[in-house]
Each structure stands twice: as C-alpha cells, then as structure tokens.
Amino acid sequence: MNFQKKHCVAMLLAGGQGSRLMVLTENTAKPAVPFGGKYRIIDFPLSNCVNSGIDTVGILTQYQPLELNEYIGNGQPWHLNRSHGGVQVLPPYAKSNKSEWYKGTANAIYQNIPFIERYDPDNVLILSGDHIYKMDYAAMLKEHIKNDADCTIAVRTVPIEEASRFGIMNTNPDGSIYEFEEKPKVPKSTNASMGIYIFKWSILKQYLIADEEDPNSDNDFGKNVIPAILNAGHRLFAYEFQGYWKDVGTINSLWEANMELLGEEPEFNIYGEPGKRIYARNYAMPSTFMSKKAKTDNCFIAEGCEIYGNVTHSIISTGCTVAEGAVVEDSVIMPNVVIESGAIVRHAIVGEDCHICANAVVGGAFAEGVAKEISVIGKNKTIEVNRCIKPGEIY
Amino acid sequence: MTTMGIIFANIYDGSLGDLTNKRTMASLPYAGRYRQVDFSLSNMTNSGIRHIGIITKNNYQSLMNHIGSGQEWDLELMEGGLEYLTPFSTGKNSHYRGKLEALHTAMNFLEYSKEEYVILADSGVLCAMDFRPVIEAHIASGADVTVVVKEGISNGEKQLDLAVREDAEGKAVELLCDYCAGEEYIAGMGIFVTGREYLMEQVKKAIGRTCYRLERDWLVPEFRGGNLKVNTYHFEGVALYNESTLEFFNNSMALLDPEIRKGLFGNPDLTVYTKVRDEVPSYYGEDAKIDDCIVADGCKLEGEAKRCILFRGVQLGKDAEINDCIIMQDTVIGEGAELSYVILDKDVTVPAGTKFRGTKNHPYVVKRGETL
Questions:
Q1: E strand or H helix at B81, and its extent?
Q2: What is the value of ipTM here, to two decimals?
Q3: Is the pLDDT of residue B90 over 70?
Q4: Do B280 and A298 make contact, defined as CB atoms within 8 angstroms?
Q5: pLDDT of B91 above 60
Q6: What is the value of pTM for the model shown?
Q7: Closest chain B CA to residue A288
Q8: Looking at the complex, does the CB of residue B316 fall below 8 Å from at least one CB of chain A?
C-alpha cells in the first residue's frame, strides 16, 4: 500500500529504564512519570510535535510499557489520532531472521526503518522522552532545510563549568559543527546537545545500516552515529535553543523542574495560548474543593482534589486529598494520593496512589544553604500511622 | 432490553434570564467545569445507553461545540452514537413549543431506531443516576410510562412541571402539571421511560389533536382519562433542580456541602464526563486566600475568595475580595475588586477596584463578555 509522503516524521525514544528515578520508575517507563500536577513527561515532546505541525510520531517503547501504552492510546489527547500518520507505539518485535531488544538509541531507530519508510519522509526528527520544555520543531526544521544540513542538532548554552557533563558541539561562525566531544574534560565551547536531532532520512538510513554492521558499536546516536556522520564530512549544524529545557532524569532535577512551575513569574511558563498548550490525557474529575480550613501559599493544585490542610510551595496533582491539619511543603504530590490529618510531607516526591496515614512524617526541613535531600515514595505505597520516612530516604 | 435516549436541550431556557440568553439550558455551565447536559448524557452512557438524540431548538452552537462528536462520552460509535436533532431535521415544526412537538420533529430518528425502550430526560435537573434499574422497574411494572420522581422537592412554592400523588401502596393516583404542589405530592424529575413504538404512536395522536406539551397535553389528561398506566420510580440520590437563576445560584453553593458533592460526583460507576480543556492546574499565589470554594483548572488566584465557584481559567487579582459568587470560565477580576452575590458569565472583565453587590435572593448576573 502506498502512503502519502510525509515531510518530517518524529521518532520519540521512550524505552529507557530511567533507573536514576529510583522507585518512581520501578513499574513505570520514565516518559510516563507524572509531572506538574496533571501531565506526564511524554506530554511535552508529544505536544511540541503537534504544535509544530508534525503529525506522524513513532514512540519507541521497551521498558515497562503497559502504563505508557495505555496513556498514549490512540493519541487523541494530543490530536494525533489521524487516519494517516498520527501516533504509533513501536515496541521491539520478532522478525523472521533475528529478534532482539533495542540495543541502543540508534538500534531502536534501525529496527524501525520499515516504519519510517512507509511515509517516505525527507527528514526524521529524533526526540527523547525525558525532557521538560516547549519547543517549535518547525523553526528548527526550517533552519535545517535552509542550511541544506544532513543533520541538525539542537543545542543550548550551559555554564562553562558544567560543560564537561554534556555532549559539546564545537561550531564555526556559520553554525556548522566541526567537532563533537562527548563529556570533554576541557570543553572548548558551551553548546550542549539537547538530544534532539533532525536528519535527512537518506543520510540517516545509510549510517544506521553501517552502524548496525559494526560489531564494536554501542548503537548510540551520541557515541556512534553522529561522530560517524561528522567524520565522513557531511553537513552538520547546531540549532541554538533559547527557552527553558530540563532533563528530568534524576530525582533532584525532577523535583526542581516541578518547583520551577511555581511563582508569579515561573521559570518555566507552562501556560500557553490555544495551539501552544501542553496537552495531556484528562481524567473525568470534578473541580477541586478548597476548605476554609485549608491554607495555600504558592502552589499548583489540579482538579479533583479536596484540600483541608496546609499546602506551601508544592504541586498537588489530580485527585488528591489533603486532610485537615496535614502539612505539605516543598513537595511534589503525584495523582490520587491521600494525606491524612496530622501527616507532614516536606521536601518529598510522593508517587501515584500513595496513602500517607495520620501523623506520619515524610522528609524534613532544611536550613538555608544546606543541600536538600529529597525523600521519595514509590507508587501505591502506604506510610503507616506515625511512621517516619527520613530526609533523603527512598521508599 | 435495549434502550435509546433522548435529551431535550432547550426546556426552561426562558426562566434563567441572561444566563440562557445565548445558550441552551443544556449548555449552562455548572460546578466549575461542567455543562448541565453532561449529567443527563453521562447518566445515559453510564447506564449502557449508546444511542442518544439531543433535541435542540435554538442557541445550540455552544452545545454542539461542547459535546462535539461525543468522544468524551465514548459515543463516537459505528452503530448508534450521538445525533443532534436540530430544528431543520424534518422541515416542519421548526420551532417546537413543548416536548411533544419536539418529539414530533424527532419522529424520523425514533422510526429508524431499533431499541425497544426510550428514556427521555430534560437538562434542568442534575443528578447522577443509574438508569438501568429504572428501565428494569418500568418493564416489571407493565406500565405505559414510568415517571422518575423525587421526594422533598415540592413545598407549595416551587412550580412543578409534574407533581404526583401516590396512595399508601405507592400507586400514582393523581398527576398535576405546572402546579405549586404541597408536600403531599412528589416531584417529577423530567425523566421518563416508555416504549419506543408506543411513544411514536402517542406523539402522532397528540399532535393530531394540536397538542404540544408532554405533561400538560398528553401525560396528565391521558392518565386522568384512564388510557395510560403510570409507574413511579423514586430516586433516592441528590437531585438539583436548576430551573431559575436563584435555584442555579443556590444549587451551585450547595456544592460546598460534601454530601452534595459525594451525591453528584462520588460514585465511580456514575462518573460525570465533560469536554476536555487543556488547562494547567490552578495556581494559588502567596497572598491568595481561598476559603470554601470550588476551583477548576487553569485559575490564577492572587486575591481572596469565600464560598465561590471558580470555573476554568478564572483570574483573581491581588487584594480582590469576592464572597458568594459564581465566576465562569476565563473571567478576569482586577486587583482590589470587591464582589458579593454576583454571577459573572464567561469572559467577563471586572476592572481593578470595582465594588459590586447583589443580594442573597437576587444574585446579579453579568452577561458573557461584558465589562462590569
């Protein structure tokens, strides 16, 4: 069957385990981890796609895919339920000659060459499912085409002292990349790769096949494929991105990114006009009830909550209950959590469906300037009456 | 047992004044994020009814915009699903005067349907009800029509579309319409179950006699004449009659009672669905003081609110103080404004420093899009 040609197809890498998120990804793929009261991490790249006019997205899943698959469904919440293209979940599958898991980011795309070929695209956008940001991929694609680039890599400026933690792109004045250094000890520039790439499909396909044939390759974009394309003398360009971007691969960064939604002038402005919003699968929940016994100060509270306690500088997700006399401070409370009266939650991330019983204490307060250790409670846990989860404890 | 549903979108439009000036009764916003029709529609789909017609008369654009293809109610189906029965669907009786005439315009829809029973519902009474036991009771009773009734509504002051008096055995012995019935009567809820073919036959006959109102011109006289057997089904749950502006105001404030919230939203098998709007969670600023309020998503709250219903996307400026108000979608209240007993429709602007009061018995309504 012939498909209508697509100018650009997006491939979203969503198969990683996300082990640095500890108990939060025990039974959940990282892209399905809740964020910001009503979202999941994957909502950001998916919404960016649809807001950028990209209507064909392949989602590569591997680790704990059930929740993620259910969440994505037919893609309707992101307006990606299309009769041609739309969103498709792509798990590894058995083939007649060889069956294997996705060995690396490049191998995951390699195994899905047939999927991409169905749309005969000019360009392929590679995204990852663990970043919080709003980006117009269409603007990047425009630059990519203007430069007649074979590969365009989104970069952002990082402080020079942090540059050795990233893949650094060293560029000529015209933006073309002459050197790529993975975590350089002595960085020459501060253009850090964001893990967002646009390739000419003809070039990428050729190098994916070559990479697969190399038994010594790790089958990774950053380590193998991009250096190979660069060394062969192709046209690589950096695309500078200015806005907010956060890799939420660790407990600390996930907590921080949530907190950066708060304030009168939030660091990450999640609000948007129609057509620039972040979409999420919405569950049918009534409006939130805010009792006169409740006290709120600088917080985000989603729908379906019943709040009787004190909530300060925190994110309360859909369907939570905070009982009278309970205290929530500097915390991220994921969906459908019950916090009973007298319980105290501070500097914590509490996973979905948890029950914090009366007078239990989770986490603790920290003096100014002291490194804050985040306590984490995994999904569906019960913290019994009077129980104490220490600061920094992972439960 | 197969049942189809019919929802009347426009009944009582006139009694809600400015609130239904540019929308149907069915699309009146309620409880921060819903429209009234969400309740009837969700009750039907939660009861396994998958073929539903919505009869509209005028101002139905907002209704269609809200329900769309019915996707939120899982009504995007190959067989059955949702149909809008707009005034032009038959070319005659384009402006019906009552539910009988409305049904007459929907005759085609009834005719090509296959279901054995029909459940009819208005959009003015809000409840979370499982219709399955109602339909079962109707079949078991052998009656021609089952009327769903609610005790404790009639008080001698509220005019009821349908009032029923029962004997000691619970058999309906008297039916009255448009009557301020006393406590010895029980109130109809605007929900009826009957046979599809029987209904068609009755509607044709009644229209032939130039009748147009379901209760006044058909149900009550036919019952009185002994031609029609009525069964009553007593609904025990929360039922809110939003048939006037004051009732709408009081029933909105009733949501502050946890028992009322539980009665409408507490049963996971009777979830109330509504149109999704991709809003962010509500932000409560450092100086916000929100006491006993219902708050939907997307609000930016910096001021003080007591006993208010805040719909999606409301902005409450610093030092603003609002008490006993209903603030609908995307309305902006400027800094230092003081309001009490006011209903602000969608997209209203309240300039900074504005002071305005309605009264408990006459909450003041500001029309959609206006500046106070």
A1: strand B81-85
A2: 0.90
A3: no
A4: no
A5: no
A6: 0.93
A7: B295
A8: no
